[in-house]
Amino acid sequence: MKILMFSGSIRAASLNLRLITLAHDIAVQLGHDATLINLGDFDLPIYDGDDEDRDGLPEPVMRLKTMISETDALVISTPEYNGFFPGLLKNTLDWCSRAGGGLDGRATYEGKKTVIMAASPGGGGGKRVLPRLAEQMEILRTTVVDQVSVGNAEENIDNEDTTNRLEQAFKALAAV
């Protein structure tokens, strides 16, 4: 299975970057063709319909849209900012849902399987953000097959329970 993976945070010390990196390592160990990207490498402008009408889709959007369209599944780890996922992630999802360059709008996502994750320093583990991200991904026509939440993440990302939970998520992804 070809999987594209990224975090909704680009902070160097991000717990979600640690979690998605661990998930990537596990996916590769399980034999998946997994690609981990950093959204900061794409330098996407804030979405503006007037800019899109005038200039079309920016080149970094087209690169990312193409990467998404060529995968079977997405794995996204996101922080929870006041109960929601960050603007960086929302902006990325919005841009890549636009039509352009021979790629239809939400069809870029259609039929993809998705695993969503959240890690936080508190005990909640980002559980409030996961339903909101799941709803967003379903609007984009993906099938959310599993959700992983890691609370007290500084201590728990690298433990056996988290590793087992991620392995289960990849088994669920492969089973759909």
Question: What does this entry show, briefly?
Answer:
The protein is an alpha/beta fold.
Shape: globular
CATH class: Alpha Beta
In helices, the fraction of residues equals 40-55%
- The figure for the number of domains is 1
Task: Quote the distance from N terminus to C terminus.
Answer: 11 Å
Mean pLDDT: 95
Radius of gyration: 15 Å
What is the CATH homologous superfamily assignment? Flavodoxin domain
Q: Strand share of the residues?
A: 15-25%
- Structural class by SSE content: alpha/beta
CATH topology: Rossmann fold
* Topology as a string of helices (H) and strands (E): EHEHHEHEHEHH
Q: In order across it, which strands form the biggest sheet? A: 2-1-3-4-5
CATH architectural arrangement: 3-Layer(aba) Sandwich
- Give me the count of strands: 5
Number of helices: 7
Could you name the ranges where pLDDT drops below 50 across 5 or more consecutive residues?
none
Taking the sheet with the most strands, its summary is: 5 strands, parallel
Description:
It is a single chain. The chain has 176 residues and is an alpha/beta fold. The protein has helices at residues 15-29, 49-55, 59-69, 87-96, 129-139, 153-156, 160-175; strands at 2-7, 33-37, 73-77, 113-119, 143-150. The chain has one domain: Rossmann fold. Strand 3 (73-77), helix 4 and strand 4 form a beta-alpha-beta unit.
